[in-house]
What does this fold into?
Amino acid sequence: MPTSLPVGALSVLGILITVLGLFAAGSVTVAAVGLLALFGAGVLEIAGRRRS
It folds into this structure.
């Protein structure tokens, strides 16, 4: 299942931000931003499939 470049990039960034927020910064707010980025990547993926 191929994904587009923006969805893949947003997923990778979301994972990195979440991991850094949980372990490095110890901030729940930063982890929430990462989870929102992952959610946004999922929404973009679904929207892209419906469009084509």
Remarks:
- Residues 5-51 form one domain.
